[in-house]
Amino acid sequence: MGVNSKTITLEDLRRHAVARSLFKPTSLPQAIQRLGFVQADPIRAPARAQDLTLRHRVKDYRAGDLERRYARLAVEEDCLVNYGFLPREHLKLMHPRSAKRSWDAKTRAQAAEIQAFIQSHGPCHPREIQAEFQLGATRNAWGGSSNATTHLLDAMHYRGLLRVQQREQGQRVYSAVVHEADPRSPHEKAQALLELVLAKYAPLPSRSLGQLCSLLGYGAPHLRGELRQTLAMARKTWPQAEVEGQIWYWPEGENPSSKRWKLDEAARLLAPFDPIVWDRLRFERFWGWAYRFEAYTPAPKRKLGYYALPLLWRGEVIGWGNVSATEGRLQAQLGYVQGHPPADPAFAKALEQELSKLACFLGMEQPG
């Protein structure tokens, strides 16, 4: 495997995880290509998760740049392990995509009519389709009522019958699409998908790798069996090491103990779904405390806050911040694992710089 696993320590893995993910800021297309996938979330506190992730990896990035430039990029809104943005080339690995629930004859007919309408009229906003078809309401996954047109458009997008052309004020505008066929075998597709998530989230403990394999069933449900079989083989061949009783994996050609993985002095407030903190099992192994995303937790039960952003400094997640805007000025409420900020004056300077960068990213005045 090219690495003496006896030399790997948890500190090596932690440094490897941070340094490989926080590559030198580059262009937006190159950053998405390098990440392989950017998880999306509609909550804006203070910005959407995809923007908060990209701001650390794209030079001069501003909140909303991805949405503004999306139609000109070779990027798609679609599913992988969850919903987000990924290079168009990766969609070939997942389409044609099947769904767990098959459509009845009525739904198939409605989908065909909507697809023909969009093919004829060009990109359409859901309100245009709603006005044309008037499908009424339907029961959603939470037992409530939702717009049947919106529900069907989402299902058509998932099945590869439509793509998101762009967004208007956050609403998807759909266009017709024919996804390019991929000549690779199911096994080769499964292998490519597993290598994609490994490259994004590495180094990964064994259990987390298994979890990601299961989550790939969202983006590629028709490859579930192949994914399990391919993972079983990969566990025997991928670079790995047992560290503190846990098997860890990383991409071929990388060495977690290499001196190339260097940390900088910057402080960073990370998105809740940033690849550095996404894996909660790994997070606790690395930093010794439990980070939880609490936006959907009842307010009285929250410990960190509605949209707490993990605070990274010198390879350690030392706390969190809840950030908001008051009268156009950035406001940050910070908490620390140790109950107080580091005494090192370098941290105060790094935090001030991070808050200034965050204000600039949001188009706000600098924090006072």
Could you walk me through the main structural features you see in this protein, from its secondary elements to its overall organization?
By secondary structure, the protein is of the alpha+beta class. The chain has twelve helices and 14 strands. The strands form five sheets. The protein has a four-stranded antiparallel beta sheet. Strands 1-3-2 form a three-stranded antiparallel beta sheet. Strands 8-10-9 form a three-stranded antiparallel beta sheet. β4 and β5 (145-147) form a beta hairpin. α8 packs across α9. The longest helix has 18 residues, at 345-362. It is globular and about 65 Å long.
In short, what is this structure?
The protein is α+β, with helices and mostly antiparallel strands and 368 residues long. It has twelve helices and 14 strands. The strands form five sheets. The chain has a four-stranded antiparallel sheet. It has a three-stranded antiparallel sheet with strand order 1-3-2.
Note the topology:
Blueprint: H1 10-21, H2 28-35, E1 38-39, H3 49-54, H4 65-69, E2 75-79, E3 83-87, H5 105-121, H6 126-133, E4 137-139, E5 145-147, H7 148-158, E6 162-168, E7 171-176, H8 186-201, E8 204-205, H9 206-219, H10 224-237, E9 240-243, E10 246-249, E11 267-269, H11 280-287, E12 309-313, E13 316-326, E14 329-336, H12 345-362
Antiparallel strand pairs: 1-3, 2-3, 4-5, 6-7, 8-10, 9-10, 11-12, 12-13, 13-14
Helix pairs in contact: 8-9, 8-10, 9-10
Main attributes of the structure:
3-stranded antiparallel β-sheet; 14 strands; 4-stranded antiparallel β-sheet; single chain
